[in-house]
Write the structure tokens for this entry.
Amino acid sequence: MTKKIPMRQCVGCGEMRSKKELLRVIRTGEDEILLDATGKKNGRGAYLCPNGECLGKALKGRGLERSLKISIPKEIIENLTKEMEAIAAR
């Protein structure tokens, strides 16, 4: 029997991918917005492809804000963009 692969949808491009391929952005109980590299932190999560293009689409189309049910301030958007670039460079 083959093991089921958990699939998630990118809030940027809308593409379905396996959970391992995507990055998780979470909103914690204190309304902090973080990139969750482990995928195991507590909080409301949204998934993104690990590239700046999908982050841009998710922010422009407000997909990320809708998924996290919170409006995202500019400085957090800048931090997410920097973290995303650092991960993409690996």
About this structure: The chain has a mean pLDDT of 89. The first helix runs from residue 52 to 60. The CA atoms of residues 1 and 77 lie 43 Å apart.
